[in-house]
Write a structure and sequence with these properties.
The complex is a heterodimer of chains A (393) and B (105). Chain A is α/β, with parallel strands linked by helices and 393 residues long. Chain A has 12 helices and 15 strands. In chain A, helix 9 links the parallel strand 10 and strand 11. Chain A is globular and about 70 Å long. Chain B is mostly beta strands and 105 residues long. Helix content of chain B is 9%, strand content 13%. Chain B has helices at residues 56-59, 85-89; strands at 41-45, 67-68, 71-72, 95-99. Chain B is elongated and about 50 Å long. The chains are: A alpha/beta (393), B mainly beta (105). Chain A binds chain B through residues 97-100, 160, 197-198, 205-211, 213, 216-217, 219-221, 223-224, 227, and chain B through 4, 9, 11, 13-16, 18-27.
Chain lengths: 393, 105
């Protein structure tokens, strides 16, 4: 039986880090992820972990130090948010293409312009093409569970890719909720030791990382990197199952909530999924066939599985807490809609951009979406498919 | 085939067999690759003017001036980048430094 506690999302992540006791953590503070390295550095100071904590002068340096450390053969972690992830952007690609399974706790926050510190997925969505595996978490429990699984996924010999575990800034990171922690020994046993095939501190082998790749080789390396991302799908499922056998909490690519017979559905990730579940329950009590697909894995994108799960739904709202300025909908919308395209009778899809810069998303907002979906299902003209939720017109 | 072996990496290698992450697990492997193909200027060795002082050899950043029996040989153009340091350092005008007119294709 696990350990019952009440923790914020940041505390949950810091606790997972303590239980895993990684080799190295280079980190730079940025709201709302600051508490993660803050708590962890206390564990280091108290001798509760023997991790080497590296204070750096920027997030670009934090990720660069992670790359050097992981390449050396050390299990390496970091945490960041918003502009911090943006400053890492260049080196995120180096970590992924060098196939270094670094684990990053991303506390989602809006990117500046205008300045804002609140929940928004602009930071991690901006890093979606960097080659990192992305796992999204509804609450503190999932942030904790996902972070523990991230090591097994990223370090798997068929994958060897860095993983970022995302949670909503403040809503999850600072909101204190009940949580069931797993005994530290069990966590250590589950995660195991980091055993890289090649590493720079191996005295029996010479190795150089990050050489120049001319046009003759670059494309083959990218194709091979894609294969690793494809391989991650099977690994994510098997680790999610193994984690469930240990903890009782099973994980897949996404959670289907009352989706089996749903006529209308919402696709959303992170904390808003919790709000939406409440509305689904309420709708069901009123006899309305509403369902939810809570996306957990955004990279690799489980397109076929999503299409299978939504194939009988009539109308789907796909929600983005990010404005990508494509002018045809957010990134989650674009990819989910693409995944549905090959279905013989694809559902109608509507893009909702919501919650930007920490704008509150309440049950009444989600309810209005379900009612709109039901109206469209019942013959109302779909109208504009690219919408803003809760913006003042 | 061991994809980590640098000797297996050549312009014919496919994506399945190329080195994971581009990591190189072999010392001195630049010898196996022609790295001089982006040169625009080229040094030309004029043996008749050379006094074999060997000042050019240690200043070459790419070890592209081979030496045998205390005498320098012609340039290793597979690795020479055309930086021109050798031509600058030569006291006897034994190295010309001219535009590299490459054969197309």
């Amino acid at each position: 039986m696990g350990i019952r506690d009440r923790l914020s999302g940041n505390e949950a992540i810091a606790n997972a880090m303590k239980q895993i006791n990684p080799d190295v953590m280079p980190a730079f503070p940025i709201t709302p992820s600051t508490e993660i390295p803050q708590y962890f550095s206390q564990f280091v100071a108290n001798g509760e972990v023997d991790t080497e904590f590296v204070t750096v002068e920027s997030e670009h340096s934090a990720m660069s130090a992670c790359i050097g450390s992981e390449a050396a053969g050390a299990r390496t972690i970091t945490a960041t948010s918003s502009a911090g992830l943006a400053l890492m952007h260049e080196v995120l690609y180096v970590a992924a293409s060098s196939r270094l399974p670094i684990t990053l706790a991303c506390v989602n926050r809006a990117l500046t312009g205008p300045i804002n510190i609140n929940a928004d997925h602009g930071d991690s969505m901006g890093a979606r093409d960097s080659g990192w595996i992305q796992i999204y978490s509804e609450n503190n429990q999932e942030a904790y569970d996902n972070f523990i699984q991230a090591f097994r996924i990223g370090e798997h010999p068929d994958v060897q890719l860095p993983v970022m575990v995302c949670q909503d800034g403040f809503i999850t990171s600072h909101g204190v909720e009940n949580i069931e922690l797993i005994e530290a020994e069990k966590v250590k046993g589950f995660v195991g030791d980091y055993c890289p095939q090649n590493y720079m501190l191996n005295p029996n082998e010479t190795i150089a990382h990050g050489p120049y790749d001319s046009p003759v080789y670059y494309m083959e390396h990218k194709r091979q990197q894609l294969e690793a991302m494809k391989n991650a799908k099977e690994v994510i499922l098997s680790i999610g199952k193994e984690f469930g056998e240990m903890s009782g909490r099973f994980y897949e690519f996404f959670e289907s909530y009352k989706l089996e017979d749903a006529e209308v559905a919402i696709v959303v990730l992170n904390s808003t999924a919790g709000t939406a579940k409440d509305v689904v329950d309420q709708m069901r009590a009123e006899g309305k066939k509403a369902g939810l697909l809570k996306l957990r894995i955004f990279r690799p994108f489980p397109g076929e599985e999503i299409a299978e799960a939504l194939k009988n739904v009539k109308t789907v709202a796909i929600m983005d807490r990010h404005e990508g300025f494509s002018t045809i909908g957010g990134p989650v919308f674009s990819e989910v809609r693409t995944a549905l395209y090959d279905l013989p009778n694809p559902p109608k899809t509507i893009s909702y951009v919501y919650g930007l810069g920490g704008r509150d998303v309440r049950t009444i907002h989600i309810e209005s979406i379900y009612n709109e979906l039901l109206a469209i299902k019942n013959g109302k003209d779909q109208g504009e498919a690219y919408r803003y939720l809760g913006v003042r017109e | 085939m061991d994809k980590r072996k640098t000797e297996n990496i050549n312009p014919q290698v496919n994506w399945k067999n190329i080195s994971p992450g581009g990591a190189i697990t072999q010392s001195g492997s630049a010898d196996l690759f022609k790295t001089g193909d982006w040169r625009t200027m080229i040094p030309v060795f004029k043996e008749d003017k050379c006094k074999q002082c060997l000042l050019c050899v240690p200043v070459c950043p790419d070890s592209s001036i081979p030496v045998e029996n205390n005498k320098r040989l012609d340039f290793d153009y597979d690795h020479c980048k055309g930086c021109g340091i050798c031509a600058k350092v030569c006291p006897f005008g034994a190295i010309d430094f001219i535009k590299d007119e490459k054969q197309e294709g």
